[in-house]
Design brief:
The chain has about 150 residues and is α+β, with helices and mostly antiparallel strands. The protein has a four-stranded antiparallel beta sheet, with no helix packed on it. The chain contains five helices and four strands, in the order βαβββαααα.
Length: about 150
Amino acid sequence: MFYLHYWHPIFTAWRAANRRVVVRYHPEDLSRIFVSADGKEYVEASFADLRRGRISLWEQQAVLMHLRSQGKSLVTESAIFNAIAAQRSIVEGATAKRRSADRHGRAGQTSPFPASGPSSEQAKSPDASSPTPDVDYSKPAPTYHVEQL
């Protein structure tokens, strides 16, 4: 199912009896499926190769499209897991790079958010090198023509 092999001991008996089965799965975890021959009692089947990790249906479908776009007509379970491992390593590398950039101020860029609280330079009185304020608070506020009614 999904180009993945699952195993449970009861499968051999069901296959010998040519039984039809109902299969249920969770799209976020294809590492196990639930199979029933009578539709009432389900058995849990896991990957036939227990070394395989969890994958989602989304990952499996994305890898399947990727493999087909490369012209591979024969899709194998090992090709699926190799491609998923490659995709996950790309994501992990990008995540590590982003975290590193966040720690180092995004390669020299400053944060778009102001610092939490005044810095020690801002807390001091303004000196001659600091720019003059736009508003002179020692003078009365100008009146506008709208206010003079």
